Amino acid sequence: MHTLFTKPRILASSICLVWGSFFSSIVSAETESTTPQETTTIASEATSAKNVILIIGDGMDDHQITIARNYLAGVNGRLSLDTMARRSIAQVLTVSNMEPDLPVYVADSANSATSIATGTVTSRGRISTTAGSDEDLRTIVEMASEAGIKTGLVSTASVTDATVAAFYAHISLRVCENPSMMRDALLFDRIPIDCSPDMKENGGLGSISEQLVSSNLNLALGGGTKHFSPIMEGKDVSVATAAEAAGFQVLRTIEDLNSASLETRWLGLFAPSTMPIRLQGEGGRSAESPLPSFMNRVHWSQGDVTLPEPTTCEENPEFAGTPSLKLMTDRALDQLSHNNTNGFFLMIESASIDKQSHLRNACGSIGEVAQLEEALQSALGFANKNPETLIIVTADHGQAAQLVPTESLFDAFGLPVYTPGQVMRIRTPEGALMTVNYATNSFLSEEHTGVSVPVLTNSTGPFPTMLTQPDLFDIMTDHLGLAD
Ligand SMILES: [Zn+2]
After folding, report:
1. Any idea what the Cα angle at residue 26 is, between residues 153 and 56, rounded to 5°?
2. Are 23 and 461 within 8 A, CB to CB?
3. Domain span at residue 88?
C-alpha cells in the first residue's frame, strides 16, 4: 500500500490549470522591479519559447539564507532571493529503501534531487531509481530532450555529483561516479561499495560519468575531471575521450568556456572534483569547539568557558582561476537560447552551501550563496527579455548551520553557558558578531536536517504556499508542455 507517498496529483493538476492562463501574463516590468542588483548584460537572443531555469542551492535552508543575508547585505539589506515575486515552502520527502512505505525524515541530495527531477520520492543515495525495486525513473531532462527541448546542467560540484546526476543518470548508489567505482571500490578508503549490478556487462547503464556521455544533454558545466579520466567499461578509451566522440566539446578553462562554439554540446570540467569556493574563514579557519575550564568540567555552573576567537571571511585565492557560477550560467544561457525556438530546461546548482556546511565553514557557505545570487541575477536578466521563462529557486534539503546567540540570554545570570557542538564567530561588514553553530553530530562531517525548504519563483500568478518536491517536477513539466 503506497498511501503515504502517492504523488499529490490533485494539487499538481490544479497548478496545471492555472499555469497556462496566468503564465503568459507575467510581465517583464515585474521582474525588472525585482532585480535591483542586476548589472549583467545578457548576450542571449530573445525567444518566445517556454524555458525553465531551476536554481538549487544545495542545503540552502532559511538559516543559510539568513546567515548569508546578514553578511552580504546586512540586516536591513535584501538579497535578490528576497525580491522574488512569490515565496513558498517545499516539504522534503524521503522513504526507507527496505520499507518504501516508511518515511525517513532527513534527506540526502540524491533522493531529494530525484524527487525534483522525476516527481517520485525515493530513498537516500539513489539517483533516479525507485526505493526497494530499483527501477529507473524518467527525468525531466530525458522528457525534454525527447520533445526537442534543449537541456543543460550547471554546478559548482562535479557534474557527476548527486544533484546533477539525478537529472540524467539512473543508478542505485550516488558514489558510483565513474567506471573505477563500480566494483571492489572503497569509500573513505574503508567502506566497500558495490555498483556491479549497474555495470553494462550486467545489463545496467554503467557509472554516472558514462551515463553522462550517453545522455542527450546540450551542456554540463562544473567540476569532476577525475571522473572522466578512467577507462570506459568494455572499451579502451577514457570517459572524456568517449564524451568527445559523442559530440561533446570538452572545456577545461575559463578561456575554453568563453570561446566555445554555440553550435556544439559542452562538457565543462573545470576542477578535479568540487570547484573552489569563493570565501573562506581567516587563514582557512572553520568552526571550533568552546573550551570549558577545569571547574566547568566538574560542574556546569562553575568556572568559565573560552569561545573561539572571532574571524572575518576572506577571498579564497584559488577561486579566481576557475569559472564562477555566474559565468557558467551566462554561457549556458547563451548556448541554450542560441537558434532555439523550442525552449530549454536549465538546472543551476550552487553546491558548496551544503559542502561547506558539512565542513563547518560558514564563510564558505556564504560565498556560495553569493554565487547563487549572481546566477539568479543572470537568470532574471534573461527572463526580462524572454518572459516565458519560469525561474524556480529552491534547496534540496536543510543543513546543519544554526544562527545562535553571540551572547546567551543566560549570561545575565553569571552562568558559564555555551553551545554544544562547534561555533564560528564571524565579524560582519556592519561591525557585529554573528555566531554560527554546528551540532548535528560528533563526526568529522556535519549532517543534513529535515526542515522544509524555501521555494522562490518569478511567477506572479497563483502559486501554492505549501508543496512537496515532486510538485516542483509537475510545475516545471507543465510549463514546458511535457505533462503526461
Ligand atoms: Zn550534503
Report:
1. 25
2. yes
3. 7-31+53-278+316-400+440-479
The reported pLDDT for the residue numbered 45 is 52
Q: Is residue 299 part of a domain?
A: no
Q: Does position 150 have pLDDT exceeding 50, yes or no?
A: yes
**In Å, what is the CA distance from 114 to each residue of 43, 107, 164?**
32, 11, 10
Lowest mean pLDDT among 239-243, 414-418, 452-456: 414-418
In a domain, 470, yes or no: yes
Q: How far is the CA of 20 from the centre of ligand 1 (A)?
A: 35
Task: Report CA(257)–ligand 1 centroid distance (Å).
Answer: 28
Q: What is the mean pLDDT of residues 41-46?
A: 46
Select which of 80, 109, 145, 350 is catalytic: 109
Query: Which grid cell sits at 235?
Result: 572499451
Separation of 352 CA from ligand 1 center, angstroms? 9
pLDDT greater than 80 at residue 20: no
Does residue 284 lie within any of the structural domains?
Answer: no
Across all residues in the chain, what is the average pLDDT?
A: 90
How many CB atoms sit inside 10 A of residue 197's CB?
13
Distance (angstroms) between ligand 1 centre and the Cα of 177 equals 16
109 is catalytic: yes
pLDDT of residue 484: 63
**What is the CATH number for 362?**
3.40.720.10
**Residue 16, CB-side half-sphere exposure with 13 Å CA sphere:** 16
